[in-house]
Design a protein that fits this description.
With 502 residues, the chain is an all-alpha fold. The chain contains 21 helices and no strands. The chain is globular, with a radius of gyration of 22 Å.
Length: 502
């Protein structure tokens, strides 16, 4: 690869001149695409929930925690290493590419071999072929890790957004067609694989960088070590968060784990539409500011403030209208999800804020601290889940949410803020006003429902209107959030100026 190509795909000096504008435009583009994916995801969930049975979904929920856990090794944290490092070379990225692809291939083979054991564990023979089919997604994922990382490093988020949208459309179309043709749970497998295949094709077309043969002495070892700590954290975090699916599936069967899985899925949909698009933008931007502590602190807190202002009232509204959400999204056969959805929603109030702590660890190069927190958090989460098992799926959900809010979250803020430019008190001060608004909104919606006794058809639009009015009114009244509303207007102006430049 020649020098010009290296400059195009590896170097980031051109971003530093207008970092704020790049970040704002990247955030707006990805938020726009994620809003589409949010609506699209709700449609996808609603359609497939009606075309397939709870048992079909339950089979996939049984195997997905195991598949997802193994999938964590595909990345090895090396994509974040590529984004975070100030200066990289073609030889370093090539080495990382081959490391990713090698491990992905090994994981694919290992999963195929383990498929009969997974099926035997759950006593569901169908899971053997399902696991083997999903294993091929590992290889496809390994091919895209470094190409996606280079796109994020270059802050070409508009390209990533297009790829995500196109892949989601093709994946859902394949899943619906498969379900209509009576393929049952295979429709969910096909949906997953088609989405991965389209993503791979799109990333390789968009990023023209191509790897050279691997060479020792490329200087990639420090990046591999950086990524190893992230991978260790992801493994601990994913394993502890998804052990509930495994234990509920083992001791209670497919239907309870399907109920828990659907409740968790509904809870995460709105959160993922914010955290997923903002995370790569934030990590890229904060990594560029790591040498300026005060600018770094201001930038992070401003992002955190906006996330809290959007997500916390949104989750509060979902909790207050949980039964309507479940009925509208899943249908009457899933009404048992309501109680679980409400309980998980309490923990979900803080989930978007908690997710941003990872940005601090990664952008500051503190991945060793991140791994240590993964150990602490994993132990707490597993203990809370095991404590709730005697009371079934409701006990597990309640125990998990209670411990998350009153133990894990405060510990995380303390652990993250004891080092670095952002302190624990900064986090609490930033989320205080949005948290207050969320409580007020929940009380307002609860009073509205109790006093009006309105049905779901009229209630959903009325609740949405009340949520918008109450939230905006309180944000205008409170000094901190009123200033933040001005930031939103500034971001809109920056994005308007940037149209046509991307």
């Amino acid at each position: 690869m020649n020098k010009n190509s290296d400059d195009k795909y590896l170097h980031i000096n051109h971003l530093k001149k207008n970092l704020k504008e790049h970040a704002v435009r990247g955030g707006v583009v990805t938020l726009g695409s994620q809003f589409f994916l949010f609506v699209f995801g709700m449609v996808s969930t609603a359609v497939l929930a009606r075309l397939l049975t709870p048992d079909d979904h339950g089979l996939i929920f049984m195997v997905m925690p195991i598949i997802g856990f193994i999938y964590l090794f595909k990345d090895l944290g090396l994509s974040q290493a590529t984004v975070q490092k100030a200066d990289i070379t073609h030889r370093q990225i090539s080495m990382l590419f081959w490391v990713n692809l090698t491990f992905s291939s090994i994981l694919m083979v290992a999963t195929v071999i383990a498929a009969p054991l997974i099926a035997r564990f759950y006593s569901r023979p169908q899971l053997t072929l399902v696991t083997i089919a999903l294993a091929f997604g590992f290889f496809m994922g390994g091919l895209t890790v470094q190409h996606q990382a280079l796109l994020r490093r270059q802050m070409r988020f508009h390209i990533i957004a297009v790829i995500d949208v196109v892949a989601a459309i093709f994946g859902l179309a394949a899943g619906i067609v498969s379900a209509m043709y009576g393929l049952k749970y295979w429709a969910l497998v096909i949906k997953t694989l088609v989405t991965a295949a389209v993503t791979e094709a799109g990333v390789w077309i968009a990023c023209g960088w191509r790897p050279s043969p691997p060479r020792l002495g490329s200087g990639a070892f420090s990046m591999i070590r950086f990524g190893a700590h992230i991978t260790g954290f992801n493994i601990l975090n994913y394993g502890s968060a998804n052990i509930a699916n495994v234990l509920i599936g083992k001791f209670s069967g497919a239907q309870p784990v399907a109920l828990f899985g659907k409740a968790k899925q509904l809870t995460l949909i709105p959160i993922q539409q914010i955290n997923y698009p903002i995370s790569p933008v934030a990590i890229s931007s904060l990594s560029r500011l790591a040498g300026n502590p005060e600018a770094y602190r201001r930038a992070y807190l401003r992002i955190l403030e906006k996330i809290a202002m959007i997500t916390m009232p949104g989750v509060a509204a979902l909790i207050a209208t949980a039964d309507w959400v479940v009925m509208a999204m899943l249908g009457p056969q899933w009404t048992a999800v309501t109680q679980l959805f409400t309980l998980l929603g309490i923990a979900a109030l803080f989930k978007p804020i908690n997710n941003t702590m990872g940005w601090l660890f990664i952008s500051q190069g503190r991945t060793r601290h991140m791994f240590k927190w993964g150990i602490i958090s994993g132990i707490i989460t597993i203990c809370s889940i095991c404590a709730g098992l005697p009371w079934g799926v409701v006990g597990v959900t309640a125990s998990f949410s209670f411990v998350s809010v009153f133990l894990s979250t405060p510990l995380l803020y303390w652990f993250t803020g004891k080092t670095g430019p952002v302190r624990t008190r900064d986090i609490y001060r930033t989320i205080a006003s949005p948290a207050f608004v969320s409580v007020c909104l929940f009380l307002a919606l609860s009073a509205f429902r109790r006093l009006s006794q309105i049905d779901i058809k009229a209630g959903v639009p009325a609740a949405m209107l009340i949520s918008v009015v109450v939230t905006l009114l309180l944000y205008v009244i409170l000094p901190d959030t009123r200033k933040a509303l001005g930031d939103f207007m500034e971001m809109a102006m920056i994005n308007r100026r940037g149209k046509g430049k991307i």
